[in-house]
């Protein structure tokens, strides 16, 4: 009989929408010591769940996605049950949790440090990602969740630095230097290149209590209603995509799933998605005439890469309330591609 798990290190990778969390986790996995097994738990604000499709299945890596809400609000109980299952079935040596870009870390930390995981898990670090360019928007400096994520962080990884100007980098460092509590470290992580030592070399994370009115209200609403079910795994019929939408915290999400036999023309797909307003967060995995592709757009920058995902095609669009395209019109446009 295997020995009970004890003090499995857990790391939280937080950051606002489009800050590069999944990319950074990919880079951390590339540095995983041989012989270790890791578990990655990804929470997405959208209903479909795209980020888990970015990771290849491996014997030494288990990746579980929890779409459709916020781990500290609607999905807290689902997250706890999922994590218990991961620990029991896969017995990981390390756990990395990526909350939604709109998620608040406080409620998640309460679960991880609660009675259910006492002596089993040990929160070893809270890292928040910051794209320096985001601070050019005055609304970012006033966004409650954005500020709380940075306040609770022990370290800050500056991402997208290859796209930022020296002035933007300097302004970000100066602004972070004024936050309290002071950050243990601030490092540049272009293309997600964060040394694994930044996670493994620290002491257990300091408990920092920060709460927000927006997330408190959402937790209260979630407690009074059934927990949101994860996006149905049953495949849609060919030619008949399954659509889902949701809203919370001043943002909305619109998502689709297609049967894997539905094949998109890659050029026409890119053209259609390129017509969406630049402020929207757009990500997807598609079966195209050029193979399976991952599409990712954040802050207007687009990337396209090969994908190992083969289960279905997926598209997720996230934006501020009232900014999303008409779902009927977009679905009709995509149907002819």
Automatic annotation (TrEMBL):
<dbReference type="InterPro" id="IPR003495">
    <property type="entry name" value="CobW/HypB/UreG_nucleotide-bd"/>
</dbReference>
<dbReference type="Pfam" id="PF02492">
    <property type="entry name" value="cobW"/>
</dbReference>
<dbReference type="Pfam" id="PF07683">
    <property type="entry name" value="CobW_C"/>
</dbReference>
<dbReference type="InterPro" id="IPR051316">
    <property type="entry name" value="Zinc-reg_GTPase_activator"/>
</dbReference>
<comment type="function">
    <text>Zinc chaperone that directly transfers zinc cofactor to target proteins, thereby activating them. Zinc is transferred from the CXCC motif in the GTPase domain to the zinc binding site in target proteins in a process requiring GTP hydrolysis.</text>
</comment>
<dbReference type="InterPro" id="IPR027417">
    <property type="entry name" value="P-loop_NTPase"/>
</dbReference>
<feature type="domain" description="CobW C-terminal">
    <location>
        <begin position="253"/>
        <end position="334"/>
    </location>
</feature>
<protein>
    <submittedName>
        <fullName>GTP-binding protein</fullName>
    </submittedName>
</protein>
<dbReference type="InterPro" id="IPR011629">
    <property type="entry name" value="CobW-like_C"/>
</dbReference>
């Amino acid at each position: 009989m295997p020995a009970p798990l004890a003090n499995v290190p857990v790391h939280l990778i937080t950051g606002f929408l489009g800050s590069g969390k999944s990319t950074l986790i990919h880079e951390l996995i590339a540095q995983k010591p041989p012989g270790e097994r890791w578990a990655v738990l990804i929470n997405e604000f959208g209903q479909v769940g795209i980020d888990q499709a970015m990771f290849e299945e491996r014997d030494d890596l288990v990746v579980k996605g929890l779409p459709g809400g916020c781990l500290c609000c609607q999905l807290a109980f689902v997250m706890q049950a999922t994590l218990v299952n991961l620990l029991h079935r896969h017995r990981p040596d390390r756990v990395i949790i990526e909350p939604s870009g709109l998620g608040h870390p406080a409620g998640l930390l309460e679960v991880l440090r609660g009675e259910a995981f006492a002596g089993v898990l040990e929160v070893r670090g809270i890292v928040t990602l910051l794209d320096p360019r985001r601070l050019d928007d005055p609304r970012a400096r006033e966004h409650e969740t954005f500020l709380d994520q940075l306040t609770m962080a022990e370290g800050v990884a500056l991402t997208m630095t290859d796209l930022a100007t020296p002035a933007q980098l300097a302004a970000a460092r100066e602004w972070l230097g004024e936050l309290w509590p002071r950050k243990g470290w601030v490092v540049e992580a272009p293309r997600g290149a964060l040394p694994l030592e930044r996670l493994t070399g620290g002491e257990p994370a300091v408990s920092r209590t920060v709460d927000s009115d927006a997330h408190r209200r959402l937790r209260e609403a979630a407690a009074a209603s059934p927990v949101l079910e994860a996006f149905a795994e049953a495949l849609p019929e060919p030619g008949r995509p399954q659509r889902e939408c949701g809203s919370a915290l001043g943002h909305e999400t619109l998502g689709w799933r297609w049967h894997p036999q539905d094949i998109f023309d890659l050029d026409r797909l890119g053209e259609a998605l390129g017509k969406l307003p630049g402020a929207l967060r757009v990500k997807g995995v598609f079966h195209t005439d050029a193979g399976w592709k991952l599409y990712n757009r954040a802050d207007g920058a687009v990337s396209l890469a090969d994908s190992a995902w083969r289960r279905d095609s997926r598209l997720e669009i996230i934006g501020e309330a009232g900014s999303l395209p008409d779902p009927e019109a977009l679905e009709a446009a995509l149907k002819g591609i």
